[in-house]
């Protein structure tokens, strides 16, 4: 079974539309036969993804740093839970054990995870699909920024093809399946 890493918010205070879409994404991933790897939290979109995967008897694995366990952020019902020492190790394992990334709306942690994996892909170190769910236009600002990066020659136009931006949960699995191949030979484009 291929695992998809899901990056997403841990805040329980965000608008309900983001929770609805997070649950739908988890449902579609499970029904498509994917396992889910996520940050191990029990609240926010993390909790919603885990709860929905469990509800559909899907395979879900959490990876969480010890300090988050200490403050009781860990999801109590996810049996496959890996405790690590640092946030860096958490992200490293999520990326290493995944065959694709889905980024749901999130804060600085989600953006940091997304940008690192985009950098890895640009350098030919992560050949798998990256799908960004743009619920309610959440990532419109990111799209403007990456287009500006291309316009001002910080990136080549091909670098804006490293990921797929989708607007609905229904588009996530097809975007994973139809993602453009991006192998190690793509590193030749990184610095151009």
TrEMBL record:
Pfam families: Lysine_decarbox. One of its GO terms (molecular function) is AMP nucleosidase activity. It catalyses: AMP + H2O = D-ribose 5-phosphate + adenine. InterPro entries: LOG, LOG_fam. One of its GO terms (cellular component) is cytosol. It comes from the Bacteria. Transmembrane segments: none annotated. GO terms for biological process: cytokinin biosynthetic process. Signal peptide: none annotated. Keywords: Cytokinin biosynthesis, Hydrolase. Its EC number is 3.2.2.n1. NCBIfam families: Rossman fold protein, TIGR00730 family. PANTHER family: LOG FAMILY PROTEIN YJL055W. Belongs to the LOG family. This is Cytokinin riboside 5'-monophosphate phosphoribohydrolase. The lineage of its organism: Bacteria, Pseudomonadati, Bacteroidota, Bacteroidia, Marinilabiliales.
